[in-house]
Amino acid sequence: MVVDELLALGAGDVRALTVDPVRAALPAGVEVARGFLGRPSTLAAAYAGVDVLYLAPYLPTVTEACRLAAEAGIGRIVDLAGPKGEHWQAVEDAVEECGVPFTHLEPGEFMANAAIWSRQIRAGDEVRDVHGAAANAPIAQEDIAAVAARALLDRSLVGHSLELTGPEMLSRRRKVELIGQALGRELRYVELPRDEGIAELATDMGEHAAWYVDGQAMLVEHPRRRPPRPSKSRADLRRRSFSGPAGTRISSRTRNPIWWARGGRVEFLLGAGNRANGVWGNWQPDWFWSS
């Protein structure tokens, strides 16, 4: 997704790292480097000549990946982490410790996580889940990619942490209701105790189910709302707009001005996930908060 966004913004020198170039099916003109963040021995060649690095979150080797980036002379890192102080904090820590100028992207829960209910929804009209009152403002991965591409191409965002959310806070129970409305079905949300909920979700999430359920428990007591509207100075930082390659105005789907600038070679570490699609309501991208 980030590669697509970069190309749409006119970036002409993009290199993508992937374990399987055939499966990745990257667009024409994108330079392909074979490798994986989890195998640091593959990174030196991928990093060679790179000006800006988009760092996907892979905790087991993130410190070494960042060290190698610094040794390769990479000038900036845009990393995908998460809310400060939570599970993905180690990504930001490693990036800052390596000494390369950075921009942190801090999204909350992905909209695509609702796919963990797809098996149950295909089987019937009942969704067995846990912590139905847990609430956040989930964001589409396409919108994260759009911000990432602009951060890669805009040097003025160096040193900033961008908190990314969707436009509306929704409980898990409400998400299921909206999915049902989109499907033309009446889905029933069934609240389960913690252990039963973990067992149910483990069918789709495996060993990560307990970690995920406990994280949702925190959102019952401390819902993650979209950030408040910033002060004028912060709004000016976020909402500047630029002209695109053909003089077109680059804007988000909500027609809020967003970032555009030209840059040099961009390294994108391509993940193996599927493209996310918004499955409930008429979802639109939202603002991002800069700190």
Observed structural traits:
291 residues, alpha/beta, eight-stranded mixed β-sheet, two-stranded parallel sheet
Instruction: Please give the number of β-strands.
Output: 12
Q: Residue share in helices?
A: 25-40%
Provide the succession of SSEs.
HEHEHEHEHEHEEHEEHEHHHEE
Distance between the termini: 25 Å
Largest sheet: 8 strands, mixed
Rg is: 20 Å
Number of DSSP helical runs: 11
- Going across the major beta sheet, what is the strand order? 2-1-11-3-4-5-8-12
Mean pLDDT figure:
80
| Approximate strand percentage | 15-25%
Oligomer: single chain
Stretches where pLDDT falls below 50 for ≥5 residues? 231-291
Judged by helices, strands and strand pairing, the structural class is alpha/beta
**What would the principal axes of the Cα set say about the shape?**
elongated
